[in-house]
From TrEMBL:
Transmembrane region(s): none
GO process annotations (BP): intermembrane phospholipid transfer
Signal sequence residues: 1-18
Protein name (record): ABC transporter
Matches recorded under InterPro entries: MlaA (IPR007428)
Keywords: Signal
Similarity remark: Belongs to the MlaA family.
One GO CC term on file: membrane
Pfam families, per database record: MlaA
């Protein structure tokens, strides 16, 4: 459930280390400036299925993930939640490093390695983020879907995945690629020692904690995002597609 509303995470991930009371007007203004209306047609042969799955994901977010996140935020102080978010960010370093290297972004790769060493050694295993807060070394978020796009692989048709949200054929392949280097995803009996979960159940539990904790730092932003949507499915589809194109171009 970590990426239940994936476009929300794409647009708000930078707020993970900020207070929950982010001004919604500021969020709306940033969204409007980043993603204007795009008339480019998106290949969408599964639109009927995608609409149904969008409704399912939306209701799951509203009636399951959001209430749990609110209760969790009520009993868990924000500094602890920020620390947990920092920890998950730090531990996903292999995915960012690998994809920066594959995209020949060697400076970014060196900075990712530096961030990991600083935050692991001086940031209490990543619960603190001195690399960002003290050394101003920002993370360079790259995934295998972006790497495929970097090498010219087309996005294919749009697909909405249960719980994961908007995607496309290229990004589904990207999820598989990232799974092999992610410490939080098991891929088989021959997994490397750096893999944290030993069973699928452990993996789901870890990802659920990550999803709830991450969402607890963004409460209200999904509602703010979709409040002006006349038709939720194409709205989220178009935002996702534009966001991914922007990420690949950067």
């Amino acid at each position: 459930m970590k990426n239940l509303i994936f476009i929300l995470l794409l647009l708000t991930f930078s707020f993970a280390n900020e207070s929950n009371d982010t001004n919604n007007n500021d969020f709306d203004n940033e969204f409007d400036s980043e993603f204007s209306t795009n008339n480019e047609e998106i290949f969408d042969p599964l639109s009927g299925y995608n609409r149904i799955m969008t409704t399912f994901n939306d209701k799951t977010f509203i009636y399951v993930l959001n209430p749990i996140s609110k209760g969790y935020a009520y009993v868990t102080p924000e500094p602890i939640r920020i620390g947990i978010n920092n920890f998950f960010e730090n531990i996903m370093f292999p995915v960012r490093l690998t994809n920066n290297l594959l995209q020949l972004k060697f400076q970014n790769s060196a900075e990712e390695l530096g961030r990991f060493l600083v935050n692991t050694l001086w940031g209490l295993a990543g619960f603190l983020d001195p690399a960002t807060n003290e050394l101003h070394m920002d993370a360079h978020k790259e995934d295998f879907g972006q790497t495929l796009g970097f090498y010219g692989v087309g996005e294919g048709f749009h697909v909405v995945l249960p719980f994961l949200g908007p995607s496309n054929l290229r990004d589904i392949a990207g999820l598989v690629g990232d799974a092999f280097v992610s410490p939080l995803t098991i891929t088989g009996d021959g997994d490397m020692q750096y893999k944290i979960p030993n069973t699928f159940e452990q993996q789901m539990a870890i990802q659920a904690v990550n999803a709830v904790n991450s969402n607890s730092l963004k409460l209200g932003q999904y509602e703010s995002l979709k409040k002006d949507a006349l038709d939720l499915y194409p709205f989220l589809r178009d935002i996702y597609t534009q966001a991914r194109k922007k990420q690949i171009e950067e």
